[in-house]
C-alpha cells in the first residue's frame, strides 16, 4: 500500500524531528564505543553512518518538497 502525500509528509517530519536526533546519539555512541578508532577510520565511519540512515527512508522523502500531486487546482476561478 502506497502512502499518500500527506502521510509521507507527516512521516518525514516525524523522522527528522524525533528519529534523526535519536539516530545521531546512537551513531556517535557506537563509534565512540569501538575501541577508540584513529581519525582516519572515524571519518569514513561517520560518512557511512551519515548516509546510511537515508536508505530505509528513501521512499518516504521522495517528492515531499514538491507540491501535492493529488491536489486539485482551480484555474477557472477569476
UniProtKB/TrEMBL annotation:
<feature type="transmembrane region" description="Helical">
    <location>
        <begin position="37"/>
        <end position="55"/>
    </location>
</feature>
<feature type="transmembrane region" description="Helical">
    <location>
        <begin position="12"/>
        <end position="31"/>
    </location>
</feature>
<dbReference type="InterPro" id="IPR021265">
    <property type="entry name" value="DUF2842"/>
</dbReference>
<protein>
    <recommendedName>
        <fullName>DUF2842 domain-containing protein</fullName>
    </recommendedName>
</protein>
<keyword id="KW-0812">Transmembrane</keyword>
<keyword id="KW-0472">Membrane</keyword>
<dbReference type="Pfam" id="PF11003">
    <property type="entry name" value="DUF2842"/>
</dbReference>
<keyword id="KW-1133">Transmembrane helix</keyword>
Amino acid at each position: 500500500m502506497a502512502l499518500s502525500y500527506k502521510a509521507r509528509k507527516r512521516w518525514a517530519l516525524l523522522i527528522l524531528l524525533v528519529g534523526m536526533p535519536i539516530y545521531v546519539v546512537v551513531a556517535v555512541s557506537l563509534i565512540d564505543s569501538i575501541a577508540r578508532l584513529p581519525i582516519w577510520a572515524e571519518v569514513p565511519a561517520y560518512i557511512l553512518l551519515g548516509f546510511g540512515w537515508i536508505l530505509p527512508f528513501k521512499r518516504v522523502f521522495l517528492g515531499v518538497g514538491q507540491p501535492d500531486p493529488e491536489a486539485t487546482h482551480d484555474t477557472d476561478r477569476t
